[in-house]
Amino acid sequence: FYSNLLITSNLYFIALANFVKMDMLFSSFILISFIFFHKYYAENSYKYLYLAFFLAGIALMVKGLLGLIFPLISFITFIIIKKRFNLILTIHFFLALLISLLPTIIWIYLLIQYNGFDYVYNSIFYQQTIRRAVDAFHSKKPFYFYLIILPLIWMPISLILFLRLKNIKNDILDFTRTNDKYLYTFIVFIVSFIILSLISSKFPNYLLPIFPSFAMFLYFLLKRMNNKIIWYLISLTYFIISIALYILPYIEKISPFLKDVRNYQIIPLVSLIISITLTSYPYKNDIKKSIKIYCIMILLFANSLNLIIVPQISHNFSPKILGEALKGYAEIGFTPISFNTYHGTFSFYAKRTVLEVRDFEELTNISKNKKVVIAISEKNWNKWKDKPSNLIIKKKVWLNNKFYLLIMTAD
To answer: In terms of Cα–Cα distance, which of 319, 343, 328 is closest to 402?
Structure first.
């Protein structure tokens, strides 16, 4: 229960919950699959095995191979450690695995019949699976990326990790020795974390399936430490946040849209209230009571963001403006192009496949020979040395923490 409270008070998770993200649905099926695999281990009932594979198969259909790989490899690793080989060396295990693959196999077969093998291989297998795993065409990050980003997106409660750094080895050992559920939880976390780190393409939201495992470990550490230091540090963090939030609207380069947000000054005030509350409230080393208060405070902060800021700036996080502009110009004969940004970002609103270009030389050649309309970041526009002189800027939009430009061939 208290691990779940930590998740609901995670600002990154709350932020994702504001948007329709396939990752949330994907992670849900993976998590339920994790649960049923453990139920199969605990009760040795084949119905849980089939349920686990069925849900992993749905996750596979929703967003790809990781939906099956996470639960499957985690469970096999757990079984090897527990030496319960009979649970995987059974015909039911392989039959359930086949059932989990069947919907995707049928879908791929129909897709090949409709679009041809070359399209399916190049678009789905190569671009979206093999290349993302081995040599990503966007969001390519180093192996250690998640080691840095996971504590950051769990701030400030993840400060407990740094407070326990000297004892972290013993903490991990004691956590895994608590019972089989804790050991399984830890294996799920480690196996999934390693797989994610080995994949070339990395996004913070890919970590969602291991949020519950990480939250359980954080709660374990909070119970073990059980003092006010962590709450004082969190209080200090929110005091710093309140100051930063107060001055942000005056730094237009970092946050160009905040200066026009109505009632914005309520946000730093709420952050300051959280800081004061967490300094004074956690009495008598009652960790459960402290977590409840912490969760209430963070939800108050998150909802003040949701009610005041999000409705006024949400359009800045949507590719709708650029996508619809690409659509409009494409309908009158322009070639829509997305430069160095995944074409799917704009294709939905453009109602067509947007040409994805990642090389300046190719972009120059196309722009010289065709009427083009291009979605390109301002940074890349400034880097483009040989751009044709007949290109003009039609729009400037703040999207994904940077300025994007809509460029088109002048009439």
So the answer is: 319
